[in-house]
Write a structure and sequence with these properties.
Blueprint (H helix, E strand, L loop, with lengths): L4 H5 L1 H21 L9 E3 L1 H9 L10 E3 L14 H34 L2
Antiparallel strand pairs: 1-2
Helix pairs in contact: 2-3, 2-4
């Protein structure tokens, strides 16, 4: 009997993909904090996972959102560096959590394959 790894790993593998993409977006926001006219972007993690769970083909075409700043900058940049850094740190911790869950799933599969 074949093991379908996609269904066995399920949501955890997709969560890692979304976290990686969000890390790239948040890093770009931080890198462009001083770029005039740069618009801070993000993706909604919960809605992306909900789309995956509902069976939609998300295939890394994430819906980008533009962030509305609390205070407008004179140069049109919408990056609020402190908030971006906090989001980046939270996303990093969430990535570690998702990776831990995925490792536990893989360990369980490995035990099942070995018959332990």
């Amino acid at each position: 009997m074949a093991i379908n790894f996609e269904s066995a790993l399920g949501l955890h593998a997709q969560a890692l993909d979304v976290r990686v993409e969000r890390t790239k977006i948040l890093a770009a926001n931080i890198a462009n904090a001083e770029t005039p006219g740069y618009q801070a972007r993000d993706i909604d993690f919960k809605s992306e996972l909900a789309a995956f769970e509902s069976g939609m083909d998300v295939s890394r075409n994430y819906d980008m959102m533009f962030r509305i700043p609390a205070q407008l900058a004179a140069d049109g940049n919408t990056v609020e560096i402190g908030q971006e850094q906090a989001r980046f740190a939270q996303n990093s911790m969430d990535f570690e959590t998702s990776l831990t869950f995925l490792n536990m799933k893989i360990s369980g599969l490995r035990s099942a394959i070995k018959g332990e």
